[in-house]
Structure formats: C-alpha cells, structure tokens
Please model this.
Amino acid sequence: MEPVSEPSKLRAEITYNAAADHFGDSPLAFWDRYGRRTVERLSLLPGSFVLDVGCGSGASAIPAAIRVGPHGRVIGIDLAERLLDIARTKSIAQRLRNVDFRRADMTTLSYPDDSFDAVVCVFAIFFATDMVKQVRELWRVMRPGGKLAITTWGPRMFEPGSQAWWSAVKESRPDLVAAVNPWERITTTQAVLQLLSDSGIVDAEVAAEDGQQALQSPEDWWTVVLGSGYRWTVEQMNAEETARVKGANLKTLRDNDTKFIETNVIYAVAKKS
Ligand SMILES: C[S@@+](CC[C@H](N)C(=O)[O-])C[C@H]1O[C@@H](n2cnc3c(N)ncnc32)[C@H](O)[C@@H]1O
Model:
C-alpha cells in the first residue's frame, strides 16, 4: 500500500502506531471485550468469509477467526502496522491459520462487490471523513444475506477520566483541545440509525450497552490515555508539558477517588437482503 497522505488518515496511523505500546495493557481490556461482544452478535457460521476494517490488534478479527473455523477466513485491515504486528503475533500464538492482517485503507477497498459473508467495523467508522460513503462501501463488498456489524462509542466515553484529561490539557496546551474528536461524531442509537438509513440501510438492529472499565489506580487511567486515541495529543506535547498534564489529570482522579471509567457502546447489526 502507498503511504497515506490525507491528514486525518496520517493522524490515525501515527496515533495508533504510537498507542500500540499500551494497547494490550489490562486497563484497556475493553478493546478485547467489545471486539468479542461485537462478533457474538453476528452469530457467524463456520466457513464464513469475514472482513474486519480498522481491526487494530485483532480484538474482533481473532474471535471471528475462531468462530468461522478452519474452513472460514478472516481478513483484518488497518493503517497502523504496529497494531497489525501485535494481531499477527496473537493469531500465531493461538495457531490460527485462517486470519490475515494487512495494512490497507478502509476507505478504498479493493474487493469486488458481494465478496464477504460479514463485515465488521469496531470503533473505526468515525475515522472516515464521509461516514455515509464508508458504510456504503462496507455494504457493497458484502454479499446478499451477509451481515454488517458496526460498533461505536456511546455517550460519555471514558468519563470522568476524559473531562479531567481535557481540563488538564486546556491548562497547558489549549491549542490541542479539539472542538470535536472523531469518536464524538456518532454516540447515540439515533445517530447510528440515521447513518445507516442515510447509507440506504433501513432494517438494522441497534442497541446501546452501558459499560465500565475498572481502574486499580489513577496510573491506570494514564495507561488508557497512552493506549487510546488520546495518544495523538500526548505525542504533540514535550516532556515537560506531558508531565504537567499527567500530574494535573491524575490529581483530579485521585481527589475524586475515581475507581472506573465509563465505556458505553452502541452495537449495530444489519443484514443485507
Ligand atoms: C480505536 S481503534 C480500534 C481498533 C480495533 N477495532 C479495536 O476495537 O480494538 C481504531 C483503528 O482504526 C484504524 N483506522 C483509522 N482509519 C483507518 C482507515 N482509513 N483504514 C484502516 N484503518 C483505519 C486505526 O489505525 C485504529 O487501529
């Protein structure tokens, strides 16, 4: 694949390559949890051919590969080579020979129409500048009778950690506080239903599920910052600024005795007729 040049894609690639060093740490167990739960909702049949876009380190692609079995096949694509490397290592450790992890751009899929029995997109749809075009593209490569699963963050992602984090960033580097972060573009069941209907999909099951991630200590929150989309902001700061933001951010969590963050999600599954 050619190097990406579009600023939003370059940013995603840099962010998640950097986040790869903490992506699998226990305070980020939610990646695996929601990847697995997304796949459970698809009820994949043995022998199915599955595409997972924005697959990261294999949170959904690996459970999908287990589910479809040796006669099925899963292709996971992502821009972040370091996450793909982790996914490959995990699949080898589990002796899975039916899953391929490839560096590719989900916005320009090279697959013919009707290629896959299922298409999965977990916490990645909001990275597409044109989400309707992206959903149409995922729908295009899926055969009639196939199922599309899209999982997004629900409201209050990572609260109260997020609010404390952005307040601390605002104090030191107000220029890094974005008006809207990608994952904030679509956080309600209504917005997901709207996206699907704008993409021509009228018959979809959309469900919100509240969740939490336990924090053993405020340090756990910092691990979440480093292993998530917030890593971009950390990468823009120098060591002194980072230390200041971390100090202020963790002090708020310590003062409030924060024991968990919210990890609410929205699952959508749609069958192509
Ligand atoms: C929040 S992570 C989620 C990863 C994985 N699905 C999971 O739940 O653990 C979002 C992923 O989308 C990937 N991504 C963003 N834009 C992409 C694009 N245009 N094509 C492929 N992957 C993309 C990022 O590199 C990142 O790994």
